[in-house]
Design goal:
This protein is 65% helix and 9% strand. It is of the alpha+beta class. Strands 1-2-3-5-4 form a five-stranded mixed sheet, covered by helices on one side. Helix 2 (64-83) packs antiparallel against helix 4 (91-111) and helix 7 (159-244) packs across helix 13 (413-424). The chain is elongated. The chain starts with 31 loop residues before the first helix and ends with a helix. Residues 1-30, 371-376 and 421-425 have low confidence and may be disordered.
Length: 425
C-alpha cells in the first residue's frame, strides 16, 4: 500500500487525498473537484459544531456553556490550521495541528455526546495529512475515542454505538483510497497524452527531416545522372575532336573554349552534387563512409574490408548501399546478440556488392519475411532500396548460425561506358 499524501495547507484539504508523496508541486494544484470537496469539508465540520452547540443551548443542557466553549475552541483550532502556512510546508506542523484538533475534540466529547459527529470529518483530515499507515491508525484511534465518548454519556451500549464510528472510518478509508486510485489513473493518462504529443512532434520532425534528405538525394541523383554526365560526355567528345583536328585549324580555339566551359560547368555540377549528398558521404568515398560506420558501432566488433578496384558510383547507389549497411548493422546491434560482424564492399566489372555478416544467434528468414519473427525489422526497407535500383537482395540465416545479408547492384550502362571512355582517354 502506498503512503497517503503529504501535509498540504488545511485550507486546501479535501476528503480524499490528492497526489501521492512523490508527486511534483505542480501536480498538487487543486482541481475544481478538489476545491468543492475542500469547501464541503469546511462546511461539514463547522455545521456539525454549530449543530452540537445549538442543541446544547436549545435543550438547556447543564453543560451548555462548556459545550459552546468546546465547540468554539475546536472551530478556532481548525481555522488557525486552515490559515497557517507552516502546515503546508512541514509534515510535522500538520501532525501537530491534528494533535491540537484531537485534544479540542476530546474536550468536546467529555461535555457532549454530540461530539461523536465530528469524528467523520476528522477521518478525512487524518487520511489526507498523514501517510497512509499513520492515517489509518489515526482513524482507528479516532473511532475508538468516538465510541468511548458515546458510551461515557449513555448508560446503554447499543450495536449502533460501535458500528457507526467503525463504518464511518471504513467509508472514509475506502473513499480516500478510491480517490487516490482515480488520481493516479488520471496522472498516468496525462503523462500518456504528453508522451503522445511529444512523440507526434518527434515524428513530424523526423518526417520533415526524411523528406528533406529524400529531396536532397533526388536532386543529387538528377544532377549527377543528367547534367553532370552530359557535361562530362560533352567534355570528352570535345577533347576527342580537338585531337582529331590538325594543328592550327581555325576551330581549335573555339573547341578549347567550349571544352573549358564544359569543364567549369561540370565542376559546378559536382559541387552541387556534393552539397546535396547525405552527410555521411560528404567527407569521402563510400568505402570511407562504411569504414567510419564500422568504427562507430557500439557492442560487437565490426570490421570493414574492400575488394576489387574501387570506382566512383552514382550518388543513388552510394546512398542506397550506405543506408542498407546502416540498417543491417542496426539489426546486428539490436537483435543479433553478435560478438563480431564484417562488412565487405566488392567492386566487380558490371556490379557492386555489399555483404554484412555476423556471428549472432540468427533467425528464420521466412518467419521474418512474414512478420512473425523477432528480428529483421529492417529487411523490407533494405529489400525495397535494392529493388529500386534493380538490384538483388538476399538474406541467409538460421537459428544459432548467424546472419549474412547481401545486396548486389548492377551498374548502369551509361556509367560503365563513361568509365571506359575515361580509361581510353
Amino acid at each position: 500500500m502506498t503512503a497517503a499524501a503529504p501535509p498540504v495547507p488545511p485550507g486546501d484539504c479535501a476528503p480524499p487525498a490528492a497526489p501521492t508523496a512523490t508527486a511534483p508541486a505542480a501536480a498538487r494544484t487543486l482541481t475544481p473537484v478538489s476545491k468543492v470537496l475542500k469547501l464541503c469539508l469546511h462546511a461539514l465540520l463547522l455545521g456539525l459544531l454549530a449543530l452540537a452547540a445549538g442543541r446544547a443551548v436549545a435543550d438547556s443542557a447543564p453543560r451548555a456553556g462548556w459545550v459552546f466553549a468546546a465547540c468554539a475552541l475546536l472551530a478556532a483550532v481548525y481555522a488557525a490550521g486552515v490559515r497557517a502556512p507552516a502546515v503546508h510546508s512541514s509534515p510535522r506542523a500538520g501532525a501537530v495541528w491534528l494533535a491540537g484538533l484531537g485534544a479540542a475534540w476530546a474536550a468536546l466529547l467529555l461535555v457532549s455526546p454530540d461530539g461523536l459527529w465530528i469524528a467523520f470529518p476528522l477521518y478525512f483530515l487524518e487520511l489526507h495529512l498523514l501517510r497512509l499507515r499513520w492515517g489509518v491508525a489515526a482513524v482507528a484511534v479516532t473511532a475508538c475515542a468516538a465510541i468511548g465518548g458515546f458510551l461515557a454519556h449513555s448508560s446503554a451500549a447499543t450495536p449502533g454505538a460501535f458500528l457507526g464510528p467503525l463504518l464511518g472510518g471504513a467509508v472514509a478509508v475506502a473513499t480516500v483510497l478510491g480517490y487516490q486510485a482515480l488520481y493516479r489513473e488520471s496522472e498516468r493518462r496525462r503523462e500518456l497524452i504528453e508522451e503522445l504529443i511529444t512523440t507526434r512532434a518527434d515524428l513530424a520532425a523526423a518526417e520533415r527531416s526524411a523528406g528533406i534528405l529524400a529531396e536532397r538525394e533526388r536532386l543529387a541523383r538528377e544532377i549527377h545522372d543528367t547534367l553532370a554526365q552530359g557535361l562530362s560526355s560533352i567534355q570528352l567528345l570535345l577533347r576527342a575532336a580537338e585531337r582529331a583536328l590538325p594543328e592550327g585549324a581555325p576551330a581549335l580555339p573555339h573547341i578549347a573554349q567550349a571544352r573549358e566551359a564544359a569543364q567549369d560547368n561540370l565542376a559546378e555540377a559536382r559541387r552541387f552534387v556534393r552539397a546535396l549528398t547525405p552527410p555521411d558521404l560528404e567527407h569521402g568515398s563510400l568505402a570511407a563512409a562504411l569504414e567510419r560506420l564500422c568504427a562507430g558501432v557500439p557492442g560487437p566488433r565490426v570490421r570493414f574490408s574492400l575488394s576489387g578496384r574501387p570506382r566512383v558510383l552514382p550518388t543513388p547507389y552510394e546512398v542506397a548501399l550506405l543506408r542498407i549497411a546502416q540498417s543491417a548493422l542496426a539489426n546486428v546491434v539490436r537483435h543479433a546478440r553478435a560478438g563480431r560482424a564484417e562488412i565487405t564492399l566488392t567492386f566487380m566489372d558490371a556490379s557492386v556488392t555489399l555483404d554484412v555478416v555476423d556471428d549472432g544467434h540468427g533467425f528464420d528468414p521466412s518467419s521474418a519475411a512474414s512478420g512473425s519473427g523477432d528480428g529483421g525489422f529492417g529487411l523490407p526497407a533494405m529489400r525495397s532500396r535494392a529493388e529500386t535500383l534493380r538490384g538483388l537482395f538476399t538474406v541467409e540465416s538460421a537459428p544459432g548460425q548467424g546472419t549474412a545479408v547481401a545486396v548486389t547492384l548492377p551498374l548502369p550502362l551509361e556509367h560503365l561506358e563513361h568509365a571506359d571512355t575515361v580509361e581510353a582517354l
